[in-house]
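Note on ligand handling. Small-molecule inputs were canonicalized before submission; formal charges were left as drawn, and no protonation-state enumeration was performed. Where a ligand contained multiple stereocentres, the stereochemistry in the source SMILES was retained. For magnesium ion, this procedure yielded the string shown in the input block below.
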Amino acid sequence: MRTYGAIGIDLGTESIKAVALEAGADGSVKVVGAGAALSEGLRKGVIVNIDAAAKSLSGAFEALKKSTNAGNGNVYAGIGGVGLSFQKSKGLVAVSRADGEVSKEDLKRAVAASENNLVRIQNREILHSIPISYKIDNETITHDPVGLSGLKLEAETLFITVFAQHFKSILKTFDEAGVSLEDAISLPMAVAEAILSKREKEFGVMVLDIGFSTTSLCIFEENYPYSLEVFPIGSGHITNDIAVGFQIPIEEAEKLKINYGTVEKNSEAHISKKSAKNSADDIVYGHYSRKKLTDIIEDRLSDIFELTEKHLKKVGREGLLPGGVVIAGGGSNLPGIADYTREHLKLPARLAEINNLGGLHDKVKNPAWAGAVGIALVALEKHIGGGTSARGSKETIMRWFRAFLP
Ligand SMILES: Nc1ncnc2c1ncn2[C@@H]1O[C@H](COP(=O)(O)OP(=O)(O)OP(=O)(O)O)[C@@H](O)[C@H]1O
Ligand SMILES: [Mg+2]
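Structure output:
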């Protein structure tokens, strides 16, 4: 049976995760390897030291190679971090054929015209251009306009952009690590690809990826990305607050958070399960107060949720996403986070699950892996969908239309 492999790499600020997936001819996808390394040289998801990041990337790649029995596949990177931006723009062109029939070429020109009308594009690289709607002579067309007739065609297009400098640093980091990069895609959309159902994307849903130093949100509606934002706060800030609050080293604070941290309403059960030796209700893990720990965690989490709520308001979707919120990233491992989300955003909420994968799927079941898995999944889809390699001219790299079309 012919198989095709793809490797997805998520350059996270705490860890770099690499996963190798393989698609069988029957459409099944299995995990053939996964490896991670602690990350150096990144800040808020952006590379600030190429040498250090390249070393970490090599480490993750080595770990991947050790874990895989196939591991040959094209390598794809996710681009996330602060500075990732989302813009919509319209472009109007005259239909070119004399008989007024709209052609594929016209669609391309309309999308190109939207790109020309983009504002504040200086110093930015376009990662994705996704046409979301068309109008012919001012009438909205809900399906493919090719073959319809008119004088003027207008496209509304979504653009996901990144600072050119960040993009260049990623390419340099891969070069320096000796890993040949096939293409790159926006990380929040890759996360969505790994954990959302088609129905959720249709109804309206938000992914909240709580990482180490960033929290990314990506909203989908009617199958298209509707909004995307990256906040510079993550679960690492919670650890820092615990370190300061209890005056303990970061490592100790991290252990305290992972082993005893919770935002569960009634956390009795959690505490007693995790710290059977501590009988006093208010005390966990030596002399640390459980209440104080929870307060510190909730304080910082509420910052993240305030930013999220503000954004939902800004884009007119406060309390208005029937598909609710799906929470991913390492920070989503905090017990009680789904209820907390439900309560604070007044929306349905669930934890991300990475399903339907065979092979070594246990290695990537933690929602911190959703990014790496999603990147590889998009790569597989693109290949199976017949997309040609985007590597080559700098003009064509990163321009994917196929993968995110319905
Ligand atoms: N069981 C747990 N409970 C609470 N937090 C956890 C748990 N496991 C991991 N985390 C937190 O998840 C964070 C790392 O998440 P993740 O791997 O998604 O980040 P990253 O992708 O490296 O960073 P970023 O996305 O900000 O660049 C750390 O702050 C870690 O403390
Ligand atoms: Mg991350």
